[in-house]
């Protein structure tokens, strides 16, 4: 399946200023779900990325269901085999704190760098003069909780577990254009104060969907092939949507 990139950037980073556009984006997210983030991450990582079709539920003894993340996956990052516990939030510019950034922005490189830093500072707490970071909101710092290993994965895989957070907006603690990078966590005591059932991690990885697409766009890549299984067959959802929303989806997958 071909995924066309410019319509995605237009809608999520610089949507038309018209009534109902936020609802339109929300409905598209409902049908595409986490699949869009996973498909783009798979494109970025390459052949080593393998999705694990198993629940990613919290490992705890407090009673109740606990928290859950979106999925497990396996991949090679920085030359190491990793078991990824992944959380995805497809926040567009209609969400609080997300800044509008047109595809063909007239901002200078310095202004875009400042844009990325400002986005980062909204979603993350910085420590040690900006050398370590932790997700600020509970909706994303749950990424750092201890999760039950997927079926058929024994305890030896614990040392491979790496939290990976996927957000839509382009952001970076130093304002760089990187889309996928590791982030050091502060002292474990700080993490334990802010994250219940902290998993004892020393770092997490961050992936920006917008930053990845922008890099491809700058390389004059207009579309990419995505795994329809990972994307959860959104073509079937097109028929169930109203005409306006279906129009955007057709732009993503047909390029029109």
Number of strands: 12
**Helical element count?**
10
Task: Kindly provide the radius of gyration, computed on alpha-carbon positions and rounded to a whole number of angstroms.
Answer: 18 Å
What characterizes the major β-sheet?
6 strands, mixed
**How do the strands line up in the largest sheet?**
2-5-6-9-11-10
Mean pLDDT: 88
Uncertain segments are 233-241
Class from helix and strand fractions: alpha+beta
CA(first)-CA(last) distance: 14 Å
Molecular shape = globular
Beta-strand percent range: 15-25%
The total domain count is 1
H and E order: EHHHEEEEEHEEHEEHEHEHHH
Helix content: 25-40%
Keywords:
alpha+beta, six-stranded mixed β-sheet, two-stranded antiparallel sheet, 256 residues, 10 helices
Written overview of the protein:
The protein is of the alpha+beta class. Residues 233-241 have low confidence and may be disordered. The radius of gyration is 18 Å and the shape is globular. It has helices spanning 5-13, 21-32, 35-45, 109-123, 138-141, 188-194, 209-218, 228-231, 235-238, 243-254, and strands at 2-4, 50-52, 56-57, 68-69, 71-77, 80-89, 124-127, 132-135, 161-167, 180-184, 203-208, 223-225. Helix 1 (5-13) packs across helix 7 (209-218). The longest helix has 15 residues, at 109-123. The protein has a six-stranded mixed beta sheet. A two-stranded antiparallel sheet has the order 1-12. The protein has a two-stranded antiparallel ribbon with strand order 3-4. The chain has one domain (2-102, 109-254). It contains ten helices and twelve strands.
